[in-house]
Amino acid sequence: MPDPDVLFLVLDSARRDRVSAYGHDRPTTPTLDTLADEATVFEHAYVPAPWTLPSHCSMFTGLHPSEHGVTSGFTRQGFGIPSSVPTLAERLTERGYHTAGFSNNPWVGQLSGLDRGFEEFVEWDLEISRSATPIHSRRGRLYSKLHTALGHASRQPLVLLKRRFFTERLVSRATEWLSHTADSEAPTFTFLNLMEAHSPYYPPRDAFDALGLDRPSAIEARRLNVKLLTNIMGRASIDWETRERLLEYYDASLRYLDRMVDRLLATLEQHGGYDDALLVVCADHGKTLGEYDRDATPPHYVRDVNTMVPLFIKEPGQTAPESVERPFELHRLFETVLDGTLDRSLPATPSTALIEDVVPHTGRDIDPEEITHWRMLSDGTHKYVTSVPTQDPTARSQSAHDRNGHQPHHDSEIDADRVEPRERRQEYLLRGTGIEEAIVEPESSVLDRFRSLLTERTEQFDMTVAADSGANTGQLSGSIEAQLEDLGYLD
Predict the structure, then answer these.
(1) What is the pTM of this model?
(2) Cα 488 from Cα 491, distance rounded (Å)
(3) Is 234 left (phi over 0), alpha (psi -120 to 50) or beta?
């Protein structure tokens, strides 16, 4: 069987429980609902890490964050994927694929090395696209000047309208690519990261209309987004009424995002490439929308709303739906795409999914004493969450920044020779999915089982992969730093 065309869509920050294909009562994703009728739907798909950069790096390398080293924005020897670690696009290019990537997220592209291996890569701001036309570049430079001239508080409507413009343009560029390569003898790999489910939120009015919701206003959108940001930063709680309206904005954003997905799939169908293509649609992480305060234990970013995501895979020739109940780790999409199909040799018994996070997303400089490295293990019924000690900063030289690229601090991987005393370790056992329930007094036998499973999983890590290799040396330019600030990554 020839290598199939591949369309790999990452719906940045898409929550599983707000996708109608997963049972949400609002029709937020009619296109994905239709796709689910002829694809494999994963009920317990878990991200490698609860934020964009390490999650994408894992999907593009097949490695856990502790293995590829991209855990807090900077690897042990620099920024982004180590140069010696081959990416998915590089592997496919070696196989004779034509490759193109389109990204609305500044973390996903040249900055982090995730553009490596792509013949064409179009980023969030067309001025840094490899193939940007002069008019697109002028638009990008004009926006950068406006962005600098305006204060952060006053520019939010401009930011949101600009993002919508570039989303439309980005998808248009992708559909042009799909149309242009439809008759190619070589297979194609097309990747997109779409940001419409990522805060801040101000979806178009017709998306609210489609869901029967009250229309938005710029003033209301600004107020809601400021409240959400202050909640994420741990500075305020969100009341029930505000959260309900935030969820309406989020659902409308998903509806608009689903429209972009429809444009892409319709282009494939128009050119006869839909039936025989491998389609992958997932999220890199979910989104907390006021469910948890910043001081919640365990922290909000390890919860299911942020770590269990939608995942649809339509294999070449597949026409019937299938549901997978056992946990699936998104870093395995690397092998799925390379194989052109799902691995049917997986055991039928439930497995476990491992999620890693290093530094809480605070948007500020972090004292080394505050750093907590979390590891989570889920079997689809329970989630075990445990803290892992940071290494003595003198034990290993490391380029360390917080995940937002701020001033250096000592951030580290696990030292295999160190074991945190049980009385200092933070451990939690959660039950259920979605808004999980913390078990106050978990049975020791259950904790012991998860501890043993976690040890077994992490002992298999090859943590020398990134340590012994050079990393991308990308720097935050002024325009990229401003974009990250608008998205809430920088404070």
Answers:
(1) 0.82
(2) 7
(3) left
SS3 of residue 160 by DSSP: helix
Provide the pLDDT confidence category of residue 466 given band limits of 50, 70 and 90. Answer: low
Q: Domains of the chain (ranges plus CATH)?
A: 6-351+470-486 (3.40.720.10), 353-458 (no CATH)
Compute the radius of gyration of the chain from its Cα atoms: 21
What is the Cα–Cα distance from 81 to 232, expressed in whole angstroms? 27
Q: In the chain, how many H helices and how many E strands?
A: 13, 18
Pair of tokens at residue 469: 């290799």
Strand order in the sheet with 98-103: 120-122, 98-103, 188-194, 6-11, 278-282, 311-314, 40-42, 322-324
Amino acid making up residue 301 = Y
For 159-269, strand residue ranges (E) read 188-194
The DSSP symbol for 87 reads -
Q: Two tokens at 57? A: 């790096």
HSE-CB at 114 with a 13 A cutoff on CA atoms is 27
For residue range 10-25, what is the model confidence (pLDDT) as tens digits? Answer: 999 999 999 999 999 9
